[in-house]
Amino acid sequence: MDSERIRHVLESVREGDTSIDAALQILKVLPFEDLGFARVDHHRALRQGVPEVVYCPGKTDEQIVGILEKLIKQSHKALATRASSTTAEIVAQRIPSATYHATARIISVTGDLPSPVHRTGDPGSCVGTVLVASAGTADIPVAEEAAVTLTELGSPVERLYDVGVAGLHRLLSRHDTLMRANVVVVVAGMEGALASVVGGLVARPVIAVPTSVGYGASLNGLSALLTMLNSCASGVGVVNIDNGFGAAFLAHRINQVPGFGQSVE
Predict the structure, then answer these.
(1) CA 223, CA 190: separation in Å to the nearest integer?
(2) Residues linked to residue 107 through DSSP beta bridges, in sequence order
(3) What are 51-93's pLDDT values in tens digits?
(4) Alpha-carbon distance 213 to 141, whole Å?
(5) Which long-range contacts (CB under 8 A, 24 or more apart) does 166-169 make?
(6) What's the pLDDT score for residue 80?
(7) Would you say the C-alpha torsion 151, 153, 154, 159 has a positive or negative sign?
(8) What is the pLDDT of residue 120?
(9) Which residues pair with 131 in a beta bridge?
(10) Share of the chain above pLDDT 70, in %
(11) With respect to CATH, is domain 130-255 assigned 3.30.930.10?
């Protein structure tokens, strides 16, 4: 339930096309809907502009399907993250509009409601492009989680993969791509140095995502996390290990700020 739908309901009541009782029936699930195993937050899209996103691990397939079915009745789109291919198949059987982004492990589901229309200058419009860069090929699953999330949220995305510091010329050869970006999400495992390098090159916010990629002393991403937190480059923020979704959500929020600045050509 987002502001566009509430506006439509209120205008329909004003025009006499919808009765007050019918409008109350639509609006009564606004705060949340209790399914017993979950309280689906239908108010989140109104508060934050994006419906509740389903985190799949720890939930049964039936619970995931049930939550998604409720979400798409009230929103134009719903997302489920860290979904297995088996879960995606079961969701698709029940919800034909479901699409599985296998590398990103994300299920996107389209509801019956039209997408909100954002005009230039509105809080929902995007300023520029978000660049998602990965240090290595092994980091791509987390990078794709960020890229697919950004696309589903409505931010234009560019990808720049396998440009880690072991071959810095690969990154520098795409200097124009770096300069065009309005926000940069940097995904890196091992020692996580790529975030500092990018942070020293661009005049845009850099969101660093440490991954659990690496040999034993990388400590499942802890080494990269500490490197990123200790970055000497200004303008670098860090999210949790493997949290491509969280980085994407933050990048999209930044990319929505009116007047934040256009991409540099």
Answers:
(1) 7
(2) 80, 100
(3) 788 999 999 999 999 989 888 887 778 899 999 999 999 999 9
(4) 11
(5) 168/197
(6) 94
(7) negative
(8) 38
(9) 158, 184
(10) 82
(11) no
Q: Token digits for 255?
A: 């990319």
What is the reported pTM?
Answer: 0.81
Domain ranges of the chain: 31-110, 130-255
What's at 16, amino acid-wise?
G
Task: State residue 74's pLDDT score.
Answer: 74
Cβ-based neighbours of 108, under 8 Å, separated by 6 or more: 77, 78, 79, 98, 99, 101, 148, 152
Reported residue count of the chain is 265
- Token readout for 151 is 């696309």
What average pLDDT score do residues 233-243 get?
95
- Any idea of the CA torsion for 208, 213, 216, 220, to the nearest 10 degrees? 60
* Spacing of C-alpha 22 from chain mean position: 34
Distance separating the N- and C-terminal Cα atoms of the chain = 38
